[in-house]
Design goal:
Elements lengths: L1 E4 L4 E6 L6 E2 L4 E7 L2 E6 L4 E6 L6 E2 L4 E5 L1
Antiparallel strand pairs: 1-8, 2-4, 2-7, 3-6, 4-5, 6-8
Length: 70
């Protein structure tokens, strides 16, 4: 199991995956917005999304868990 974490603090602009969905390594799963920039967060490994911890509009800090892939 791998948790995908926020690379910086910001607002969750888009959640691109849902629980149960298959993802590939390198696939964007969340887009954060910080300082008017969009920052894509990608899965580091392929697998199935087990848990989505955030919703669009949430504020996250650096290293907060966003999505869990197994």
């Amino acid at each position: 199991m791998a948790k995908i974490e926020a690379s910086m603090a910001g607002n969750v602009w888009k959640v691109l995956v849902s629980e149960g969905e298959e993802v590939s390594a390198g696939q964007d799963v969340v887009i954060l917005e910080s300082m008017k920039m969009e920052i894509p967060i990608a899965a580091e490994e392929s697998g199935t999304v087990k848990k989505v911890y955030i919703q669009e509009g949430d504020f996250v800090n650096e290293a907060d868990a966003l999505v869990e892939v197994e």
